[in-house]
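In the current project phase, we have settled on a layout for protein records. One protein thus recorded is set out beneath this paragraph:
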Amino acid sequence: MAAVINVQDLTMRIGARRLVSGASFRVDKGMRIGLVGRNGAGKTTMTKLLAAASVTQGAGQAAADADSRHGLDAVEHEGSISCNGSVGYLPQDTKVGDLTEIARDRILSARGIDTLLTRIRKAEERIAVTEGDAQAKALERYTRLDHEFTMAGGYAAASEAARVAAALGLPDRILDQEIGTLSGGQRRRVELARVLFQQPDTLLLDEPTNHLDHDSVLWLRDHLRSYRGGFVVISHDVELLRDAVNYVMHLDATRGVLDVYHLGWDAYLRQRADDEQRRRRERANAEKKAAALRAQGEKMRAKATKAVAAQQMLRRAERLLEGLEEERVQERVAHLRFPDPAPCGRIPLRAQGLSKAYGSLEVFAGVDLAIDRGSRVVVLGLNGAGKTTLLRLLGGVEQPDSGRVMNGHGLKVGYYAQEHETIDTTRTVVANLRGAAPEMDDTQVRNVLGSFLFSGADADKPARVLSGGEKTRLALAILVVSGANVLLLDEPTNNLDPASRQEILRALSTFSGAVVLVTHDQGAVQALGPDRVLLLPDGDEDLWSEDYMDLVALA
C-alpha cells in the first residue's frame, strides 16, 4: 500500500533563499515524525505545502478551512507530493473559519455532522414557538432528523468530540460560544480539538502545545503516542518529542538539507552528534590530503614536462573536497537587547475599574492596576480569564466597556501580541520595521534586522510567509526600536527554538523598564523576576511568591 503522504525531490525557495533541496520522505501509518530545525528553516512552509497538496488531491478538508495556502504564493517549489489518504492540518494561525460559528459546531464540522445538528436545533426551536399543525410538522421533522443523526453515529461522535474538548481544557460553556468571542488560546484549543476529532490518516501539527496548560500537554502526549495513523509534528517541546515520536526529520537551515533519522528523540540526538563528528573528521582528513596534493602539484607546474601531471593532481584535490558532506555551521542566534527605556513618571500606566464583555459573556469586571516605573507584573488566570484582553486594553488596542486606562507622564508602550497583530502581513519585513522607526535610515533598519537574523534577501520577504518563530523575532525587533518604558508581553516565547528563547529571556532579565507578562512558560517568569502578580478574572493583586509558580503552567 502506498504511503499516505509521499514526497520526492522537494526543493523550496522564498525569493533568492533556498530553504531545502532534494528532500524525499514518506509519512505512513504508525510513523510519528518530529520535524525540527531552527526558526526560519522552513518547517512551517513545508507543512503548508503538504497541507495544500492534500487539499488539491481531495485528502485534506481541515487544511482547506485552515487557509493552508496563505503565504504560499511567495514560495517556489519543485518535486512531487502525493496524498493517498485523509490529512488533518493544525496551522499556527488560529484566525480560521467563520468567527460567528459556535465552537462546538466548529469541532463537529470535521466529520460533517454540524449541519445535521444545526437542522435539529432549528426543528427544536420551531416546536417551541409553534402550535397545532405547524408544531406537529416540526415534531415530525425533528423525529426524522433525530433518527438520521442517530443512524449516522452523531450522538456517539458528539460525545467523543466533547471528551476531546474537555481533555484540552474546553468546558461546555466555552463550546457553546461563538469562535469570535474566544481568546487566542481558546481558539487554538478548538482547532486542535477539531483536527484530533477528525481522526485523519495523517496529522500535520504545527506547535500543538501552544496555549495548552500542563494537564492538556500530558493528555496530548499520551494521545499522540497511541495514535493509529501517522503524524508530522513541529514542536519545541522536547518532552513531547521524546515521548511521542519514533522518527525525526531535521531541516538544516545552513546546509539546506532535510536529514531523516529512523530513530526516537534521544537516539536522534546521539546520532546527529556522531554525524557531525564524522563530517568534521572526514573534512579534516580530506583537507589534509588535498593540501598535500596542491603543494605537490604547484611544485610540478614549474616543469613543462610535468604540467599535465600537475593539473591532474590539482583536479584530484578539488574532487576530494567536492565529494564531502557539508559540515554543519554553528547556527546563529538572534541578538536581543532592549535599550534603556525612555524617561517617565513614577506611575507611567494605570487602570481603574476596567470591565470587558463580549456579547453576554463578561470577561472581567472592576480590575484596578497601577504599573510603577520599572515594576514587573505577571498576569495569571485560566484560559479565557481575560489575560490577553487586559493587555489589549492597556495597550490601547481595544476599549473597555467601563473604567479607563490612564497614561502617565512620558509613557511609551511596547505591546507584543501573541497572534502578532502588530505585524502588517501585507508589507515586507524591512517595511514593517521601517514603519515602526521612521527616524532610522535604511542602514540602521537593516542592521537591527540583521541582529534578529533577517539579513540579505530575508529582510525583503513578505511578512505573510514568515513562520511563527520568525514573526516573533520581527515583533520583538519592533519592540526594541520603540524605546518603550512599559512592555506588555503576551506569550513572547511561543514558537521559539531553545536558543532564541534563551536569548529573549536573558534580554528580559536585564531590561530596566516596566513589564507586564502573560505566559505559560515558567522559565520566562523566572527570568523576569516579578515583584507582583495579578489574578484574573477577579483582579486580585498580590506580592509575588514562589507559591504562584505552580499556577503558571496551569494558566
